[in-house]
Specification:
Keywords: Membrane, Transmembrane, Transmembrane helix. It comes from Catagonus wagneri (Chacoan peccary). This protein has about 100 residues and is an all-alpha fold. The chain contains 4 helices and no strands. α1 packs across α3.
């Protein structure tokens, strides 16, 4: 791993989206789990988070994979995939070949 690498804007956007999904799922878990125990509310919040992640993050990736090409898309998911595959340009990695 290179020491000089920073999070790109796509990765920052993805982290913000995950944080928003976590906040929404916790609110849904507390709202839908009224009158239940703490474990049930926690499990419901986790299930809401899991469902939201499947719909918001994995759904567009599957759609782009089936309908078009992820590489040619400008979506957030596609930018994460492209930035992950780009080679590191630091001195240590360039010297190694």
């Amino acid at each position: 791993m290179c020491a000089g690498r920073e999070l790109g804007s796509a990765a920052g956007g993805s982290l913000l989206l995950c944080a928003a999904l976590l906040a929404v799922s916790c609110a849904l878990g507390l709202r839908l789990g009224r009158g239940r125990g703490a474990r049930d509310r926690g499990a419901l919040a986790w299930l809401c988070f899991d469902a939201l992640v499947h719909f918001a993050l994995e759904g567009p990736f599957v759609y782009l994979s089936l309908v078009g090409n992820v590489t040619d898309s400008d979506a957030l998911i596609a930018s994460l995939c492209i930035s992950y595959r780009s080679p590191c340009a630091c001195v240590n990695c360039m010297a190694g070949g």
